[in-house]
Design brief:
Blueprint (H helix, E strand, L loop, with lengths): L1 H4 L1 H12 L6 H24 L9 H25 L6 H11 L3 H51 L4 H52 L5 H34 L8 H10 L2 H13 L8 H26 L23 H4 L3 H5 L7 E5 L4 H4 L7 H16 L6 E5 L7 E6 L2 E7 L5 E4 L11 E4 L6 E5 L4 H6 L3 E3 L1 H20 L2 H14 L1 H7 L6 H13 L7 H11 L6 H11 L1 H6 L6 E7 L1 H9 L1 E4 L2 E4 L3 H17 L8 E4 L1 H12 L6 E4 L8 E8 L2
Parallel strand pairs: 1-2, 9-12, 9-14, 12-13
Antiparallel strand pairs: 1-3, 3-4, 5-7, 5-8, 6-7, 10-11
Helix pairs in contact: 2-4, 3-4, 3-8, 4-7, 4-8, 5-8, 6-7, 6-8, 7-8, 10-11, 17-20, 18-19, 19-21, 20-22, 21-22
Length: 690
């Protein structure tokens, strides 16, 4: 076994020695047969593999076989010129078989075979290898991004992702090597023609001058030797060239070439019938061999007709109880690999119904920013954002699926929530975004734009101006940070839509590890998982973290038996989380707010009606418009003094006022007095009146 591991090295050394050492004719015959067998073996392997990487050593084998053919050609040329045209029985047999007693016809056949190998097979395979290498390299970023997206979505694990990345790298290396190896085969074909001419011309000169042979005898002897020698090297070269053409044109599939050809050709019965009918019609042309035409044409037509009947029988088979097609022996007829037959299985249709919670699509210019193989760190940024978000809000955001989209502007990206677009932006990869915080010392030149996350005017500047912009007081952001920030803000605004009941169950399981009693007491005895999901979503909608699940469950346990309105239960939970809520808006232990006049509160309270599904507000549109306008005006007045203005009202009014404002400006924060930490000082900067 250890010997087998070194057999290639030994073989290559021996073959190279053939270039120098003279070989006896018997041994040369054996090596020609080995060359035939080796080339045929390679051809058979290329027809059996399912994908190119199963035969990744092919470029190296091409080099070895090329060196072997060159060495044998040199050895045979030495014998032809020095042994009166006899270089072994194999060469003599091939030469006599092709010439058939006619030197001119045999020479023409040999030239046609040689040129066909050089100009058709080798040239075509070389071009395909070159194009495949280029396309494989160009497709690497998109494939890498698809792997990262599958990893983030949980479809594959880290080990599978590592294997896929390795496969992509190996494919790139393979086709790059094939592009170079094609030059070996092309050079070998050209060298065979040159050596053949040398053998023929040199043999004639050598036979007439050195051996004093008559011209007719010289022509016959050296023609046989030359043509035979050319064939025993050209035919294996054709086999290798054909193998190269097959492997570079081979697409990955679940079966080898033989099965795929049978399936894909015989899955088109109408095409077979048309071809058979056309061939049959050739019998009407005067002079056509009627026997051969009428034998082949109807046979092809009959084959297509039989396959068509079998397909119709399959399509009319009774449906199973689940709506799928009845069972069938997979070997009975060729598999119909088309869209219609695939979606006859209703389970395959259900596979189209799912949507990704969060999805991002990128134009091709942005792919290097998110592709890890190109140095992009977008995946790492998402991971760190998920960690930070979980620590801040107590929620683990779902995986973000990443896709490249050729229909987008090259510099554009799109954020989708459950399949629908909710945000988009454009970034310039080689530029930086400069934002004016309002205290810059000088203006700078750049491409005017708007920051996508917050709508702040900015300018795209190049790398050379970055340092100057920072000196002038601009906030300079790289393109990747612009995308991550935009995505983060979108997720923060819509996280309440991403919270599923499965997420709630996971949160409950996490709490049960620390405090199983609170979970078993509250869920589902006092409140259902569905209602708990609504309450948690209400909190997240207004940026209230749900990290303190134990306090939330305890509050629901206290009020859940007597209060069934999820909005009211949310208000009780908010009051228990007042320290968490207050911390977000307080500055220096002072909470600067816009208060609501008592008349406004009484107007809202007077419009509250009780219904079967809870309380609701029935206020005249004019009053709603008046209250909303006054609130927005007061909030805008204090925006210059307060980063995040807060409207403060009584507990019973808060939820209704917030719902009213959400229809016009959902970014306004509304708190109740019960949600403010007693240790915090309240400073009223404005008052909303009727």
């Amino acid at each position: 076994m250890k010997f087998l591991t070194n057999i290639v090295s030994v073989f290559v050394v021996i073959v190279i020695a053939f270039l120098i050492l003279p070989l006896p004719t018997g041994f040369l015959d054996m090596m020609f047969l080995v060359n035939f067998a080796f080339s045929l073996l390679i051809l058979m392997i290329t027809t059996q593999i399912k994908e190119t990487l199963e035969f990744s050593i092919f470029p190296s084998l091409m080099l070895i076989t090329t060196i072997m053919r060159v060495a044998l050609t040199v050895s045979s040329a030495r014998l032809i010129l020095g042994n009166r045209g006899f270089a072994g029985q194999v060469i003599a047999t091939f030469g006599e078989f092709v010439l058939q007693g006619n030197v001119l016809v045999g020479a023409i056949v040999f030239i046609i075979i040689t040129l066909a190998n050089l100009l058709v097979i080798t040239k075509g395979a070389e071009r395909v290898a070159e194009v495949s290498a280029r396309f494989t390299l160009d497709a690497m970023p998109g494939k890498q991004m698809a792997i990262d997206a599958d990893l983030n979505s949980g479809l594959i694990d880290e080990q599978q992702a590592k294997e896929r990345r390795s496969k992509i790298q190996r494919e790139s290396d393979f086709f790059g090597a094939m592009d170079g190896a094609a030059k070996f085969v092309k050079g070998d074909a050209i060298l065979s023609i040159i050596i053949t001419l040398i053998n023929f011309v040199g043999g004639i000169i050598f036979g007439m001058v050195m051996e004093n042979m008559p011209f007719g005898e010289v022509l016959v002897v050296y023609s046989i030797a030359t043509v035979g020698d050319g064939l025993v090297t050209t035919i294996p070269a054709i086999l290798i060239s054909t193998s190269m053409g097959l492997i570079v044109t081979r697409a990955s599939s679940e079966n080898n070439l033989n099965v795929e050809v049978a399936r894909q050709v015989f899955s088109q019965p109408l095409a077979l019938m048309a071809a058979g009918g056309t061939i049959t019609a050739f019998a009407l042309i005067p002079g056509m061999p009627a026997f051969q035409v009428l034998l082949l044409g109807p046979a092809i037509f009959a084959l297509g007709f039989i396959l068509r009947m079998q397909r119709n029988k399959l399509e009319k088979a009774p449906a199973a109880p689940d709506g799928s097609i009845g069972s069938m022996d997979p070997e009975a007829i060729p598999e119909m690999l088309n869209e219609a037959s695939y979606y006859k299985d209703i389970e395959n249709v259900y596979g189209l119904l799912g949507v990704d919670p969060i999805e991002m699509e990128f134009g091709y210019s942005l792919v290097p920013l998110v592709d890890e193989s190109s140095g992009g760190s977008f995946i790492d940024r998402i991971v760190m954002f998920r960690k930070q978000f979980a620590g801040d809000y107590g929620v683990v955001i779902p995986t973000v699926r990443l896709r490249d989209n050729g229909l987008l502007n090259p510099n554009q990206y799109v954020v989708k929530l459950k399949g629908e677009e909710i945000g988009k932006g454009e970034v310039l990869v080689d530029y930086f975004l400069a934002l004016d915080p309002g205290n810059t010392s000088e203006d700078i030149d750049g491409i005017d734009t708007v920051e996508p996350a917050y709508g702040i005017p900015g300018k795209w500047i190049n790398e050379d101006m970055r340092e100057a912009a920072e000196v002038y007081g601009y906030t300079v952001i790289d393109p990747l940070s612009v995308i991550v920030t935009h995505m983060s803000e979108i997720i923060r605004r819509h996280v309440h839509e991403l919270l599923t009941r499965q997420d709630v169950n996971t949160l409950l399981e996490n709490v049960a590890k620390r405090n199983p009693a609170i979970v078993t007491d509250v869920v589902p005895g006092i409140i259902t998982v569905a209602d708990l999901q609504k309450i948690l979503s209400n909190l997240l909608r207004e940026n209230v973290p749900i990290k303190d699940m134990e306090t939330i469950l305890e509050t629901l346990g206290d009020y859940g038996l007597s209060v069934k309105d999820t909005d009211m239960l949310t208000e009780y939970v908010r009051q228990r989380l007042r320290r968490t809520i207050t911390r977000q808006y307080v500055s220096g232990n002072v909470l600067q707010v816009v208060t609501v006049d008592q008349d406004v509160e009484q107007t809202i309270l007077g419009s509250i009606k009780k219904g079967e599904h809870g309380a609701y507000m029935a206020l005249e549109p004019e009053k709603v418009q008046h209250i909303v306008t006054n609130v927005i005006e007061d909030v805008n007045q204090i925006k210059d003094m307060v980063n995040n203005p807060v409207v403060l009202t009584s507990p019973v009014v808060r939820v209704y006022l917030k719902k009213m404002l959400d229809q016009f400006n959902p970014n306004i924060t509304v708190l109740s007095f019960s949600e403010v930490d007693p240790t915090v000082q309240i400073q009223a900067l404005a008052n909303v009146t009727m």
